[in-house]
Design goal:
The chain is α/β, with parallel strands linked by helices. The strands form 4 sheets. It has a 7-stranded mixed beta sheet, with helices on one face. Strand 11 and strand 12 form a beta hairpin. The termini are far apart.
Length: 379
């Protein structure tokens, strides 16, 4: 039977609306899916470009320290301490971290941190460099691991990067707070620079700074006090002196360094600290002796000496307090222009400074009543 157009019934209008909704949903789905795919591809492409940039980076890296301001208390001699005003020796440790291009040992591993420093997008490498310079990466590895030249650094204030695309260079600036030496600790023929005494975790300590110095170097820095007679061996650079005799000597050194006559004191001798070398149970010999820069006329080859006595704040019995001793020294300095009064020895422990009447060797066992051969220099 032939079918004519009139035999086909017309479509329901609701059926055509459903079709239109289905078509538009499909179009929207395709657009959203395409956008997500495109974003994913762009992200992958960006990551690929970043990795490619890192692999192909050829920027030259220069690392420098922000020059510290000159200290009013201490101006370093560049022939002795390279690491403060122009930290060349400290830069050796920085180069060791960075792996600055240099002939690698045969079979050695390539330096990876230099490639990281070349990449301006690697901000973590600057944090790693700061941790390395402050010794944070060494914690927990044992006291035998020394900081060496890095011990000059007390803290890192900031590390910033300056990129120059025209010259293809990366400039890394390190703004560090450097430790400043209080003075020397002498042991045998070696002299070690130490920082001022601080209290960490309830314990007093004085950090040893880099370097082992000679007598000539010590004399070149005559403005720095020197402590000798300490029993404990010197720690590695970056570690601290903690023994009671070292702390007592360095605390006294900090006090004496502020006085106008400081340069006339050559050594703070702690050999008899707490009377450990005094066989007399009364322990009358001075615990601390100051050796001056002047010759002892009664003992050729020896310096004149000042009997200081007990450490600062530990005076007992008949011994006067440290402020009184400092006043005695000031009076002697003003009167004689030298703190030893031009005699072999001066005793600072009593109510008045005591100097010998004649040029006789000091009587190390004399107490407050043993004054037969001495006279008071009260005025």
């Amino acid at each position: 039977m032939a079918v004519t157009v009139h035999d086909i019934p017309p479509r329901d209008p609701d059926d055509r609306s459903w079709i239109r909704r289905g078509v538009w949903s499909l179009v929207i789905l395709l657009l959203v899916g395409g956008g997500v795919f495109a974003a994913y591809e762009m992200g992958m492409y960006g990551n690929h470009r970043s990795e490619e940039k890192l692999r192909k980076s050829t920027a030259q890296v220069a690392i420098e320290f922000v020059k510290p301001p000159a200290s009013s208390a201490f101006t370093p001699s560049m022939d002795i301490i390279e690491s403060l005003a122009n930290p060349d020796s400290l830069m050796n440790d920085v180069i060791a971290f960075a792996g600055k291009p240099a002939p690698a040992p045969a079979g050695g591993e390539p330096f990876l941190n230099y490639n990281r420093l070349q990449n301006p997008q690697d901000s973590a490498v600057l944090r790693d460099l700061a941790a390395y310079l402050q010794g944070d990466t060494d914690k927990g590895k044992g006291a035998e691991l020394a900081l060496h030249n890095r011990a000059w650094i007390k803290s890192i204030r900031s590390i910033k990067r300056e990129s120059n695309r025209q010259t293809n260079t990366e400039q890394i600036w390190i703004d560090a707070e450097f430790r400043e030496p209080l003075g020397f600790v002498a042991q045998g023929d070696a002299y070690y620079l130490v920082e001022r005494v601080t209290t960490v975790g309830g314990q007093k300590q004085a950090v040893r700074l880099p370097g082992t110095y000679s007598l000539a170097a010590r004399r070149a820095l005559a403005e720095l006090p020197c402590v000798t007679g300490i029993d404990a061996p010197a720690p590695e650079p970056g570690r601290a002196f903690t023994s009671p005799d070292a702390i007592a000597g360095l605390e006294l050194a900090a006090v004496l360094a502020q006085q106008p006559y400081a340069r006339q004191i050559a050594m703070i001798n702690m050999s008899n600290y707490q009377g450990r070398q005094d066989p007399d149970p009364r322990k009358l010999r001075p615990f601390i002796t100051l050796e001056t820069i002047f010759a002892n006329t009664s003992a050729p080859g020896e310096p004149s000496v000042l009997w200081w006595g007990r450490p600062v704040g530990e005076e007992e019995f008949y011994e006067v307090r440290s402020p009184a001793k400092l006043q005695y020294l000031t009076r002697l300095f003003m009167k004689y222009n030298r703190i030893d009064a031009a005699v072999p020895w001066v005793d600072l422990r009593f109510d008045q400074p005591i100097i010998p009447m004649a040029k006789t060797p000091p009587r190390s066992d004399s107490g407050p009543g043993d004054t037969a051969s001495i006279a008071s220099a009260a005025h």
